[in-house]
């Protein structure tokens, strides 16, 4: 369990607070808007009304004691930038800041953010990959060069085993798991027989994955 300071309770901040609660983390939520703070009370450990750009207020929070500080302000970049800088000045161990534009991400990183999250861009990329193909069900980009895809079993694979198809040698991809009827089988063995109603999770270099997915 981690202790999290979450500043900004707009849509992104509220969703993050709810998920952090589901994951059993302790969350102190902060926003200037009293209504937002009140609405967040059911799914955070504690909540305060306050301005993240106020140096005295930030100092009063004891940010050094939080494992993670999240600046979820999305509608006021100046406030987001100032809050990020103040958190690092007060000794926050790790600051994650929300960006809404590429240039915002650069400035946030230069002014104290340890990492940035760019939800609109990240969701747009995911949706473009996910919905541009009929047989891709999920997608995770691990690095610029490597990804994980959940995809349908190719019809030519049905009834054949991993070793028979020589998946790794022929396609240069790794099968991390298969899923059938809600049941996940991690790291299927060489004798696993592929079924028409299952999906596979594949890991590999993007150029090899694209060759496989669009063969």
TrEMBL record:
Query: Per the database record, which ranges form the RCK C-terminal domain?
Result: 134-215
Q: Which residues form a coiled coil?
A: none
Q: Where on the tree of life does the source sit, at the highest rank?
A: Bacteria
The record, for InterPro entries, names: NAD(P)-bd_dom_sf (IPR036291), RCK_C (IPR006037), RCK_C_sf (IPR036721), RCK_N (IPR003148), Trk_Ktr_HKT_K-transport (IPR050721)
Q: Which Gene3D superfamilies match?
A: NAD(P)-binding Rossmann-like Domain, Regulator of K+ conductance, C-terminal domain
One biological process term from GO is: potassium ion transport
Q: Give GO MF terms, alphabetically.
A: monoatomic cation transmembrane transporter activity
Domain named RCK N-terminal: which ranges? 1-118
Q: What is this protein called?
A: TrkA family potassium uptake protein
Query: What organism is the protein native to?
Result: Oscillibacter hominis
């Amino acid at each position: 369990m981690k202790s999290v300071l979450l500043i900004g309770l707009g849509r992104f901040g509220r969703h993050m607070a709810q998920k952090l609660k589901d994951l059993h983390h302790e969350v102190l939520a902060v926003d200037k808007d009293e209504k937002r703070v009140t609405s967040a009370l059911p799914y955070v450990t504690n909540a305060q009304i306050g301005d993240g750009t106020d140096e005295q207020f930030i100092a009063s929070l004891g940010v050094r004691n939080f494992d993670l500080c999240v600046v979820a302000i999305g509608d006021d970049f100046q406030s987001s930038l100032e809050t990020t800088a103040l958190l690092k000045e007060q000794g926050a161990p790790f600051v994650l800041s929300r960006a809404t534009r590429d240039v915002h991400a650069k400035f946030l990183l230069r002014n104290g953010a340890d990492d940035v999250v760019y939800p609109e861009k990240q969701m747009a990329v995911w949706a473009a990959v996910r919905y541009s193909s009929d047989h891709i069900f999920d997608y995770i980009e691990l690095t610029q060069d490597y990804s994980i895809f959940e995809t349908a079993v190719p019809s030519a694979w049905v009834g054949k085993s991993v070793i028979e198809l020589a998946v790794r040698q022929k396609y240069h991809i790794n099968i991390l798991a298969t899923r059938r009827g809600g049941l996940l089988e991690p790291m299927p063995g060489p004798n696993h027989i592929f079924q028409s109603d299952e999906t596979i999770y594949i890991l590999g270099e993007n150029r090899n994955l694209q060759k496989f997915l669009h063969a």
